[in-house]
């Protein structure tokens, strides 16, 4: 089964659009972006389009990649005061401290659930918001009727956007996955034993058909640019062996954006 992420996102979009109609005032999101990244540009375009459809204003604040940490910190503090939700697009230029920058956003406005405080609230069950990638995985698996308990689950990547929040979500569900980095030498053998693979390595073609077993579930959260195209970690040919497969683009990505907007409404 190849997952149609656009269809799921459209279903969520319609639910949120109906909620927007009954609000006393329109909601808004501030997207903060430092530097130049074609992958981020694509995601911003998708977020703006999603917001337009449900009546949420999405304003992009674009800064030069040479901006200082002090100035960036001040800009974030200022932007937070004008919006209901704030997102800092990652990755940031190397000289900018991600942890310090994200900490400026109050948890109730951190709809990406990326700051240490926001993630801790999620882990403790004190937040109505879900990390978007983890929420997208949850939405897709629920619709596919996939149970997590008793499954051998492998998470590839240990980053802030995918690996860390997905691990937190799985542990909240009572599941302890195997989490590895891109440089793990035993990856082919590990994947061959896995029932569910969630990958966010950002390594094109990392997962090949001969590395997986028949009936595996692959949730591909890896996004990279190769020859002018956005591609995932898993080769598309893996879909022929998988019970559930999310293509890139069009799989997890649209649902991740939809969950981000769900978070905007979570505290209303």
UniProtKB/TrEMBL annotation:
Q: Name one Pfam family in it.
A: THF_DHG_CYH
Which parts of the sequence belong to the Tetrahydrofolate dehydrogenase/cyclohydrolase NAD(P)-binding domain?
Answer: 134-265
User: What GO molecular-function term can you cite, just one?
Assistant: methylenetetrahydrofolate dehydrogenase (NADP+) activity
Q: Is NADP one of the keywords UniProt gives this record? A: yes
According to UniProt, this protein's pathway is: One-carbon metabolism; tetrahydrofolate interconversion
Tell me one GO biological process term. methionine biosynthetic process
Using the record's annotation, list all stretches that form the Tetrahydrofolate dehydrogenase/cyclohydrolase catalytic domain: 3-112
> Sorted alphabetically, which keywords does the UniProt record give?
Amino-acid biosynthesis, Hydrolase, Methionine biosynthesis, Multifunctional enzyme, NADP, One-carbon metabolism, Oxidoreductase, Purine biosynthesis
Tell me the superkingdom of the source: Bacteria
Give GO cellular component annotations, separated by semicolons.
cytosol
Tell me which InterPro entries the record gives: Aminoacid_DH-like_N_sf, NAD(P)-bd_dom_sf, THF_DH/CycHdrlase, THF_DH/CycHdrlase_cat_dom, THF_DH/CycHdrlase_NAD-bd_dom
Q: Which PANTHER family match?
A: C-1-TETRAHYDROFOLATE SYNTHASE, CYTOPLASMIC, C-1-TETRAHYDROFOLATE SYNTHASE, CYTOPLASMIC-RELATED
Q: What is this protein called?
A: Methenyltetrahydrofolate cyclohydrolase
């Amino acid at each position: 089964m190849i997952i149609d992420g656009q269809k799921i996102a459209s279903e969520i979009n319609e639910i949120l659009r109906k909620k927007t109609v009954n609000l006393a005032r329109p909601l808004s999101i501030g997207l903060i972006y430092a530097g130049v990244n074609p992958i981020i540009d694509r995601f911003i375009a998708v977020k703006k389009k999603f917001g337009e459809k449900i009546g949420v204003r999405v304003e992009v604040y674009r800064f030069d990649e040479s901006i200082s940490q002090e100035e960036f910190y001040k800009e974030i503090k200022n932007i937070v005061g004008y919006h209901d939700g704030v997102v800092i697009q990652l990755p940031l230029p190397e000289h900018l401290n991600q942890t310090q920058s994200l900490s400026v956003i109050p948890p109730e406005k951190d709809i990406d659930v990326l700051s240490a405080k926001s993630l801790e609230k999620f882990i403790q069950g004190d937040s109505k918001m879900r990390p978007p990638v983890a929420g997208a995985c949850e939405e897709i698996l629920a619709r596919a009727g996939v149970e997590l308990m008793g499954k051998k689950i492998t998470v590839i990547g240990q980053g802030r956007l995918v690996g860390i929040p997905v691990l937190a979500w799985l542990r909240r569900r009572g599941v302890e996955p195997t989490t590895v980095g891109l440089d793990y030498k035993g990856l082919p053998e590990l994947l061959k034993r896995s029932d569910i693979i969630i990958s966010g390595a950002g390594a094109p073609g990392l997962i090949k058909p001969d590395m997986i077993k028949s009936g595996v579930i692959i949730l591909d959260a890896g996004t990279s640019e190769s020859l002018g195209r956005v591609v995932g970690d898993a080769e598309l040919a893996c879909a022929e062996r998988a019970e559930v497969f999310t293509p890139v683009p069009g799989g997890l990505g649209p649902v991740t954006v939809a969950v981000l907007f769900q978070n905007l409404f979570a505290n209303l």
